[in-house]
Amino acid sequence: MLKTPPLSLYIHFPWCVRKCPYCDFNSHALRAELPEKAYIDALIEDLDQQLPKVLARPLISIFMGGGTPSLFSPDAIKYLLDEVRKRLAFYTDIEITLEANPGTVEYQRFAGYRAAGINRLSIGIQSFQDQQLKALGRIHNGSEAGNAVIAAKAAGFSNINIDLMHGLPGQSLKEGLDDLNRAFELDPSHLSWYQLTIEPNTEFAVRPPILPVDDAIWELQEQAKRHLTKNAYQQYEISAYSREPYICKHNRNYWEFGDYLGIGAGAHSKLSDAENQTIMRAWKHKNPKDYLGRKTSFLAEGKFIAQEELAFEFMLNALRLHYPISIALFEQRTGLAFSTLAAPLLEAEKLELLAVTKTDIHLSDRGKRFYNDLVTLFLPR
């Protein structure tokens, strides 16, 4: 039977100083004055429209993503958080993350964000090497990247994520490991280390750079994992590494098929209704002008997840995790009997991609490596 899962709040800020050529997120270059007050007011109204769907459910996490949320002032962020708190209860140990770029203007605001209620920073560094940052279209340099982490610690943040990319244009094994070693020197609590991929509808898709060959990327990944383990970073998801107790609560809730309410341009929601045994996905108007100029609802579209798609939706998320997946969790988050997975699990076991015990699903090293192949076994048939 479907049970009500934990609830997170995602808040989307759609503007950047400049659109990066690899980015396929809903982000837009800021070509005029930032409509800070109008957008914050719209976010609050957006939340008000959805409150009946979440009733009195408390929040375990809030994530402010983008775009570049740190374009917004600490005063604006404080006002927004205060208004959210008036409407929804916060768990005492709530995680509140703000994504930030490491440019000088933004990291001078870190103390203000801390005072506003942010307790976790996610800093989009991507690389510490100036030539790579230029190739990626980033507006900071390697020195500013390091200074941003130092400034975050000086502002009182102990929970800091660094975003790093690998498989970059022309990147050597040494360069990839040098980026990680520089990150280790800064001693963040969490590392998101992910491979550059060419996504549709990006500048790189139109003019693709020359990337390292697969064997070179594989060798870098294998050596990097050993370095991460040696430096006490535990891999708990495909591209996420953490020191205890700093596993990202917000992302973990996504991968465990928890609920999340999304506000802001293009933000997505996934909400479970235990009383009616249904799960709905919804998303907001994507273009900031459409979002701010809406006449009534911010909602662009919503739909219920079909019963035959639920198992795949759950496994698509949960198989990203590098720890056992609870059978009870599957049943509670989908409302389906575990027997629904019998056929694909048997096939996956034969391929040595995972193993099933009485209580859990355990991914093998092979299953972790071939995630995409494993997930397809759970597609509706």
Describe this structure in words.
- There is one protein chain.
- This protein is α/β, with parallel strands linked by helices.
- The protein is built from 16 helices and 17 strands.
- The chain has helices at residues 36-54, 74-87, 104-107, 110-116, 130-135, 142-154, 173-186, 203-206, 214-230, 249-255, 288-292, 307-318, 327-334, 342-350, 365-369, 371-376; strands at residues 7-13, 15-16, 28-29, 59-66, 90-100, 120-126, 160-166, 190-195, 234-237, 240-242, 259-263, 268-273, 278-284, 299-304, 325-326, 354-356, 360-363.
- The strands form 4 sheets. It has a 9-stranded mixed sheet with strand order 9-10-8-7-6-5-4-1-11, with helices on both faces. Strands 12-13-14 form a 3-stranded antiparallel sheet, with no helix packed on it.
- Helix 2 links the parallel strand 4 (59-66) and strand 5 (90-100).
- Helix 1 packs parallel to helix 2 (74-87), helix 2 runs parallel beside helix 4 (110-116) and helix 7 runs parallel beside helix 9.
- It is globular, with a radius of gyration of 21 Å.
- The two termini are 23 Å apart.
Q: How much helix, percentage-wise, in residues?
A: 25-40%
| Strand line-up of the largest beta sheet | 9-10-8-7-6-5-4-1-11
Low-confidence stretches: none
Largest sheet: 9 strands, mixed
In total, how many beta strands? 17
Give a quick set of tags describing it.
single chain, 381 residues, alpha/beta, 9-stranded mixed sheet, 17 strands, 39% helix, globular
Q: Mind sketching the topology for me?
A:
Layout: E1 7-13, E2 15-16, E3 28-29, H1 36-54, E4 59-66, H2 74-87, E5 90-100, H3 104-107, H4 110-116, E6 120-126, H5 130-135, H6 142-154, E7 160-166, H7 173-186, E8 190-195, H8 203-206, H9 214-230, E9 234-237, E10 240-242, H10 249-255, E11 259-263, E12 268-273, E13 278-284, H11 288-292, E14 299-304, H12 307-318, E15 325-326, H13 327-334, H14 342-350, E16 354-356, E17 360-363, H15 365-369, H16 371-376
Parallel strand pairs: 1-4, 1-11, 2-3, 4-5, 5-6, 6-7, 7-8
Antiparallel strand pairs: 8-10, 9-10, 12-13, 13-14, 15-17, 16-17
